[in-house]
Specification:
This protein has about 475 residues and is an all-beta fold. The protein has two domains: about 375 residues, Regulator of chromosome condensation 1/beta-lactamase-inhibitor protein II (Methylamine Dehydrogenase, Chain H), CATH 2.130.10; about 70 residues, Sandwich (Immunoglobulin-like), CATH 2.60.40. The chain is built from one helix and 37 strands. The protein is globular and about 55 Å long.
């Protein structure tokens, strides 16, 4: 039985290059145990590696040693799980390809098992983000509501029953949702705007609580945090009992829980971690990713640290020894984005270069036939992974003191804005808000350090930038 795929999504990072050029990092790098996909700044997707399940999305099932363009465009979010790839486009529609019908997680029972071309999920609209497990797809919509398609054996629908829909999706009874992620065996999590995490579904492996309860049929409050900016759940296809979850809060803290048999949670001498534990790291974390049994974290000084399983060199040091302690990935600085496949790791630096290390058995790193790459290897990306704002525009968005604020910042959404995000210059996401109407939005910045902040308004037609100085 082939190892199921496990991927993680990386958080959007905003950086100032040499104090002058404002750039956005392509939000997603995803990998399986056998392939890699990247989302380019212009919404195009490229993939390479194993393709017998149609993971390239180019209409073929032939393995690729080099990047090929997937037949989809206008993509704003990329996800991969259980030998299939799924995207959300700029219109809020969802497309999927690869092994898409193994357990009818799409809610379209008539589809063939293998789809080498992207297919639109017909009922899904106004979607902001999706996450997948081996049996479900969870959808976060623009209005903060949440839906699910696929199985309901363990109460994944959150509606108090285990009755499954053969087609379509079902609304989960929870609102004001900012982010979603999943755990193995059917555990689901929603992050609300008040910083609380809610969980429901399967409690196998105690991914919800430490009781003997097998599953929860409705959402229950699981953890209170200052706000989540990046999550790394235990799904997307995971083998054995390695299910675990990691999250990063707005304050730069990392919380972990679940399976820890390879020390992938960074908690020594414990096979299972429950309830959640906060880790101690050299600096504040701004992004998080993880493979099947290893973890990556991006710190606010631009360095990457890793721990857990290292059998394929995925920790980025000269050995293949596992580590329960965070280790700095060798030779990487000025990193703004990270990602992981099952046994492979990725990073993007401020100059737009892509680095990869770990498992290369299916050429998911490079065309080289070397099966293990223990040190970060610079790879010329197939497309631009950074979006720079022209210097002429910077005169308008980067003045020396634009409207200084002290405690509260009020922002009037541009017409068509669906998401408003505020970033510090170290790449930290301060706040992400689903915009439901055109009313002014007030943000409390009293706890933020003085300095320059960027406001990103994502609309149906593009992305708009503003800056503000906190005094």
């Amino acid at each position: 039985m082939r190892t199921l795929m496990r991927i993680r999504i990386v958080v959007l990072a905003l950086v100032l290059l040499n104090g002058l050029t404002l750039s956005l990092v392509a939000q997603h790098i995803v990998g399986s145990d056998e392939h890699t996909s990247v989302l380019c700044h212009d919404g195009v997707v490229y993939s390479w590696g194993y393709n017998l399940d149609g993971l390239m999305g180019d209409g073929t099932t032939v393995n690729k040693k080099y990047p090929v363009r997937t037949h989809v465009s206008g993509v704003r979010q990329l996800y991969c799980a259980n030998r299939c790839v799924c995207v959300v486009d700029s219109s809020g529609h969802v497309f999927i390809w690869g092994s898409v019908a193994s357990q009818n997680q799409t809610g379209v029972p008539s589809w063939e098992w293998i789809q080498p071309e992207p297919k639109q999920i017909p009922y899904a609209d106004s979607v902001r983000k999706i996450v997948m497990t081996e049996s479900n797809i969870y959808y976060l919509r623009e209005n903060g509501s949440m839906f699910v398609s696929g199985a309901n054996w363990f109460g994944q629908y959150g509606n108090g029953t285990t009755i499954r829909l053969d087609s379509g999706w079902s609304q989960i009874p929870i609102d004001s949702v900012m982010d979603i992620f999943c755990g193995i065996y059917g555990a689901a999590y929603a992050v609300r705007y008040d910083g609380t995490i809610w969980a429901w579904g399967s409690n196998t492996g105690n991914l919800i609580d430490s009781t003997d309860t097998k599953y929860y049929l409705t959402p229950r409050e699981f953890l209170k945090t200052p706000g989540i900016i990046s999550s790394c759940g235990g799904t997307g296809g995971i083998v054995s009992n390695a299910g675990c979850v990691r999250v990063v809060t707005e304050e730069g803290d990392v919380y972990v829980w679940g399976g820890n048999d390879k020390n992938q949670l960074g908690v020594p001498n414990r096979m299972r971690v429950i309830p959640p534990v906060k880790l101690t790291l050299p600096h504040k974390a701004i992004a998080l990713s993880g493979g099947e049994e290893h973890t990556l974290v991006l710190l606010n000084d631009g360095t990457v640290w890793s721990w857990g399983d290292n059998a394929h060199g995925q920790l980025g040091n000269p050995t293949t020894e596992n580590s329960a302690q965070p280790l700095q990935v060798i030779g990487l600085t000025n990193v703004v984005s990270i990602g992981a496949g099952a046994f492979t790791s990725y990073a993007i630096t401020t100059d737009g270069m892509l680095f990869s290390w770990g498992d290369n058995r299916y050429h998911q790193i490079s065309e080289d036939d070397t099966p293990i790459q223990p040190r970060p290897l610079a790879i010329t990306p197939p497309c631009s992974l950074l979006t720079s704002i022209p210097a002429e525009d910077q005169k308008h968005i980067l003045p020396l003191a634009p409207n200084p604020v002290t405690d509260f910042l009020t922002i009037t959404p541009i017409h068509g804005t669906h998401t408003l995000e505020l970033y510090a210059t170290d790449g930290r996401l301060v706040r992400s808000i689903a915009v439901l109407n055109s009313l002014p939005i007030t943000l409390n910045m009293s706890a933020e350090l003085p300095g320059l902040y960027a406001i990103v308004q994502k609309t149906t037609t593009g992305v708009h930038f503003q800056t503000v100085v906190k005094q």
